[in-house]
Amino acid sequence: MSEKYCFNLSDNKIVKILSEIYFFFMLGAFWSKRLIGATKWTLKYKFIMSFWKDTVDFFDEKLVYLLIIFIVLRAIIVKISMKKLITFTTLIVFAELARLKSGDTYILVIFLLIVAANEIDGKRIISFFTILNILLFTITIVGALSGILENQIEVGRNREYLGFNWTTTSVMLFTYFIFYYIVLKKGNITVLSFSIISLINIWLFIKTNTRFAFLISMSVLFVFFVISEFLKYLIDKKGLKVFLIFLPWLLFSFILVISIKYNENSMVMSQINSILSNRLQQCKTAFLNYDILPFGQPINWVMTMDATKDLQANYVDTAYLQFLLCYGYITIIMLLALCSYLLYRVYNKKIYSLVFVFAAILVFGLTERQLFWIEYDSFLLLLFANLDNLCDDLEKKFLYKVKREII
Question: How would DSSP label each residue in 96-163?
Fold first, then answer.
């Protein structure tokens, strides 16, 4: 076994329950800060604004310390292997350097949450985010459609905000809900669930015209609905494992090179830029204005809608390049390595639904920024979590048998 326990958490139910309550409380505080503030509820009701502001203050001032305390306590309860101790320490130290250089606490919180999730039940983590995100999604959209919240409409593109502060937020919440649902159902999509999810997704596309999210979510859902058994067969192919390990690096290299080489005078590149909603031009402009540094730099992101004559738009939608510029190349290398490790780990455990879903999310990161945002992509918290409950039934029985033999 990779870890030796001072006393077994699974046998000490009180310690296990208290530990997980503490973890999910911090996760809930993090989620509240990031997503409740992305809705019109904070503008509609003063008590919600007050709650959200208090949460923001809590997040900025206390959450880092509470996470560190939790990690230390877990290290006392569970005797962590030297390999994990070195890995965790390296991640936290480098994340702190990125925080200092970028002036943004978020990057440190991401890595602290990843470390804090060590040996936490992975299925509970995914279920936690699934419930919170779909509740916020439903309540906010119902509020907007009933007139309780403002349903702002983007001028020019006729896209509805549906009660959120940005037109794509509702779509991203639902897209990741689809990913969560597929993993929780272990890739088994029924006709009824496929029909309901597809109808909601089509309605969202009509309302928001968010093309990439619609295409990737419908494609993944359709693939699992039609050929899920073939995916189970495909995961046993040895060549696939090597490809998956290198996938994050290939995608990052592709978007980096094509963005740096972008030339608006090239007809081919201009067409690609147009298809990608001006994302290549975004990245090119950002590279002209900012250097690529080891641990990043402070960047005041300005979206196109907020740009003025004196304030040029510099926002980068691509997750890979946004983190590269803001948090540095050492940070993005760590994140790519972690993504490769997650794919390697879930592949070895034969959690085929998570393998293909996370691969799709990595592709999605070429055009959207939520890949490394834990409040959307909580799959990153599974890096060191307990994945037994996400395994297929046959694999779970095998793992249980191995553990019994070891004990």
Answer: HHHHHHH--THHHHHHHHHHHTTTSBHHHHHHHHHHHHHHHHHHHHHHHHTTSS---EETTTTEE-TT
- Of 58, 85, 116, the residue that ends a domain is 116
177, 197, 179: which is closest to 187 by C-alpha? 179
pLDDT in the model for residue 234: 73
Q: Is the pLDDT of residue 400 over 70?
A: no
Tokens of 65: 């310390």
The reply to whether 303 falls in a domain is yes
Domain boundary among 64, 85, 116: 116
> What is the pLDDT at residue 12?
64
* pTM higher than 0.85: yes
Please give the residue range of the domain that contains residue 84.
1-116
Measured from the Cβ of residue 393, the count of other Cβ atoms closer than 10 Å reads 8
| Residue among 94, 120, 124 nearest 19 (CA) | 120
Whether the Cβ atoms of residue 115 and residue 385 lie closer than 8 Å to each other = no
Residue 370 lies in a domain: no
236 or 153: whose pLDDT is higher? 153
Domain membership of residue 25 (yes or no) is yes
Per-residue pLDDT at 136: 95
Residue by residue, DSSP assigns 373-404 as: -TTT-GGGGGSSSB-GGGS-HHHHHHHHHHHH
319-340: per-residue pLDDT in tens? 999 999 999 999 999 999 999 9
Q: Which residue has the higher pLDDT, 394 or 115?
A: 115
**What's the structural domain count of the chain?**
2
Burial of 241 (0-12, 13-18, 19+ CB in 10 A): middle
User: Hey, what long-range contacts does 266-271 have (CB within 8 A, 24 or more apart)?
Assistant: none
